[in-house]
Fold:
Amino acid sequence: MASEPQHLEPERANAAMIEADLATADEVRALSRWRRAWDSDVAYSFRRSPVALISSLVALVFILGAAFAPLIAPQNPFDPGSLNLMDGFTAPLEPNAFTGNTFLMGTDDQGRDILSTILYGSRVSLMVGFAGVIFAMVLGTVLGLTAGYLGGWVDAVIMRIADIQLSFPSILIALLIFGVGKALLPREMQDELAIYVLVLAIGLSGWVQFARTVRGTTLVEKNKEYVQAARLIGLHPMLIMLRHVLPNTLGPVLVIATISLALAVITEATLSFLGVGVPPTQPSLGTLIRIGQDFLFSGEWWITLFPSLALVTLALSVNLLGDWLRDALNPKLR
Amino acid sequence: MAAFIIRRLLQSIIVMLVVAFVAFSLFRYVGDPINNMVGQETTLEQREELRERLGLNDSFPVQFARFVGNAVQLEFGISYRQARPVEDLFAERLPATLELAIVSAIFALVFGLALGVYTALRNKSWSAQTIMGLSLVGVSLPTFLIGILLIWVFAVELGWLPSFGRGATVDIGGWTTGLLTASGLQSLILPAITLGLFQLTLIMRLVRAEMLEVLRTDYIKFARARGLSDRAIHFGHALKNTLVPVITITGLQLGAIIAFAIITETVFSWPGVGQLFIQAIQFVDIPVMAAYLVMISLFFVVINLIVDILYYVVDPRLRAERPGAVR
Amino acid sequence: MAQPLLQVRDLRIEIPTRNKVLTAIDGVSFDVADGEILGMVGESGAGKSLTGAAIIGLLDPPLRIAGGEIILEGQRIDNLSYARMRRIRGKKIGAIFQDPLTSLNPLFTVGRQLVETIMTHIDITPTKARARAVELLREVGIPAAERRIDSYPHQFSGGMRQRVVIALALCANPRLIIADEPTTALDVSIQAQILALLKRLTREHGTSVILVTHDMGVIAETANRVAVMYAGRIAEIGPVREVVRHPSHPYTRGLMGAIPTMGHDIEQLNQIDGSMPRLDGIPPGCAFNPRCPHAFERCFKDQPVLLDAGPTRAACWLYDTARLEAANG
Structure:
């Protein structure tokens, strides 16, 4: 019915569009990896989210404060020589009746500056926390890889243990391991090695999440062709899988690690509070809170309140960060 | 149905045996039981005699069997620290822990459910966001800290509620209860809230997540397309489907409550088995530790069993032995 | 001519995204008459399901109606409040979806779900509602309806489940049913049964149906008229026979040419080069212009409207009479 129009134009239009496409592709390649990372979804939502920014800032402040405690703390509260008993029981920001010294957060019964105790205490808490998480991460990854790769009864046994362990709260497991560890050690060495046992306990109570994730990825990668190919060449497939499995699990493992850190810090604080954690010579935030509880009724509220606030702030910021990270990396929510 | 129960029972027994094995190894091989039981003056021959009499030189399977036999009869030996039978210590303190656990579980369940449903239905609202934010704080607050905070506000500053002990208790049969006295009830409030708050947060977030999931399903979409009222959709369809997975997790949490009671009891000097356990760790009182392990495992196993049966009852899909098809 | 049951005028649906606002449905207009089955066919993402969702008022935010009107029985329904729209849903407009397994609540019996729906719209006693439910099940062809009414969804086979779904949609005798891929999840043999059922019910109750599918065979089998959708717009609309045998729009021509038919031997299936553009890549003018062998100047500038093209109407500037007259004049 209609006469066919001349259509040189459409062809030209198509060609022009193809050229335009190629140009953009080149441009994209030219952008550096950093720029692309900055523009990526994750970095974008990080920049946009006040929660993520603030919580990582707070966490950073804690970590730096704890790391440089000996340098920035007004005093070393655990060196008996630097203490003055007369400084004791000073309220925050009020000059002491006897010595005239003022402390930002007051002092405890021994004259220790609370701010300093918090800095040193955070140090212990974070050290134990990080060590525990790293231990759990390594243990979990190894077990997850083994279970996924070997399959069969090894897999069944490991997963069974994981399931059973998951149905018990991690505090309980940590308590039990700590109790057994302490019982195994001769009395003299108990104080010295308590920290190591504590790290062991926290690590052993937290490996399961890591193992499950890594095992999942391992199972997926195991069946891929490059593993068969590697076997043919004679390369140990385990090494190949390490190279390919680990990058794939980086995201989820990072989320689990962050949330585990918060849990580890809380677990350590709880154990120390209960009196079965770090030894009294190296108090952590939990120990400080325990000491302070005795003084609540006599009115020196600051001895327990400030360490409590510190603990909550630390745990909260790490938790928020972990939560945000999990949402940012979840493909379903994008 | 019967086959299902029997199978689960067998599994439970196996788990208990494994736990007994671990507990027994603790008991027998960590430290020297003899050294913990006698004074320093006891001679070597006397120790050897004791060792023989207590059967500590018998083979492993024999000792294990004896341990299991004793355990089934609720005999766990003598506490190193208090020189009294472990089972007596437990019997005295169990009612305190159980009352605390049950009251806080009810508290957590009722409020957790209500808040979870509320924040799911009013998802983007300001109040829901606030509650969710607070819940995140709740997860970051360790139990003992909640306890201290509550003590400070209500006991120290306001002076309304006691901060330690159980108050006056009444003896009924073998059970001591604090629910029948005013001071008993008052003493129960702060510890119950402390213990239950963590669970409440967990239940609330779980219910919310489940409900949001359910609200996204096709059958809810279809229900909307049929013009059903919001109330029918939310509380008729969505809620029932939400409860099914929530039941499992909540049931499992009950066991966790008993474990977390350890912390709460320490903060409030509550005379329960949790406090006993902490003291046992501090003093390396192995028999008590072993007994606590077995007891807690028993609780977990039984609770798991009940939850599985409940699940079976609620979800009709699990009941079909052979799904009947109509062509 | 009697007023059409449903009139859609210039419907526009937008999705605000992080960077800009995308238009998912752009200027869609059509009518549905009483008792007719209108097919909506197109590739995935062409906008057929969205149009249906908009009509029944179930657009999920952030999707929103940004323009145009939807008129049912002479009254505008696109701007109604949630509460008023809810009364229309199920009573005037019903919907059935693709997967019968996930459309039914697994924890409630079929009877419970039926009775609940009936009693939401009709004020009768539970006993009468149950009787009506049994009747409905019989009507859609469920054998032993009085017994099956107390069964759970997982106890039915796929085909039977979809019949239950249809029964649920018919509870309050709606005037219009939106069927979104009702047979896609079913076996081919069951498909035929369900389509026959739909046709029979429409005839007996005078219900109209908007049948959304990507399967041209289903349309040819069941529908009276068909609208071909492309990139959120209607490319062509007309009686089924004409659209299939004498397609006017170049896209429809390509579609029909790509369907193998029994009677003819051909060397190769005709393919249309390229693919339907994504929402953020729709070119100006006619959405089909990058792939159209007949595209000319105007196609790249102005978005075409539905123009008469013989027995059907096509959104294609080739059928612009003014230009035709100018060319031939």
Observations:
- The longest strand of chain B covers residues 170-172.
- The CA atoms of residues 230 and 236 of chain B lie 9 Å apart.
- Chain B touches chain A at residues 15, 26, 30-31, 136-137, 139-145, 148-149, 151-152, 156, 163, 252, 255-256, 259-260, 262-263, 266-267, 277-278, 280-282, 284, 286, 289, 293, 296, 300, 304 (CB under 8 Å).
- The longest helix of chain B spans residues 230-268.
